[in-house]
Every structure is written in structure tokens, then in C-alpha cells.
Specification:
The chain is an alpha+beta fold. The chain has one domain. It has a two-stranded parallel sheet. The N and C termini lie close together (10 Å). The model has no long low-confidence stretch (mean pLDDT 80).
Length: 51
């Protein structure tokens, strides 16, 4: 399973990416952010598996 964090400043593009990626098996959208600084905060809160 691959975890994906969507970072894009355009809300419509984030929504489209979320819909497309959520439909793919093996991918999990774990969150989204509007900017890189928000992404940094979100990245630290995303749990990771130790595989």
C-alpha cells in the first residue's frame, strides 16, 4: 500500500487528484495541503509503517 499526500495550491486540482488516486488500488490518500509549508506540518503527522 502506497500512502499519498496531495500538495497543490489549487483546490479543484487537489479534489481531482484525490478522486483519481482514491480509485486506484494500492494507493491511499492520507491527506492534502494547499502549500509546501502546510505540507511540512502534514508530513510529520502522517503515520508510516515500518516495512
Amino acid at each position: 500500500m502506497v500512502s499519498v499526500l496531495i500538495v497543490n495550491d489549487q483546490s479543484l486540482q487537489r479534489l481531482a487528484l484525490r478522486v483519481l488516486l482514491s480509485a486506484e488500488s494500492g494507493l491511499t490518500v492520507v491527506g492534502e495541503a494547499a502549500s509546501g509549508s502546510t505540507r511540512s506540518c502534514a508530513h510529520h503527522s502522517v503515520p508510516t509503517s515500518s516495512s
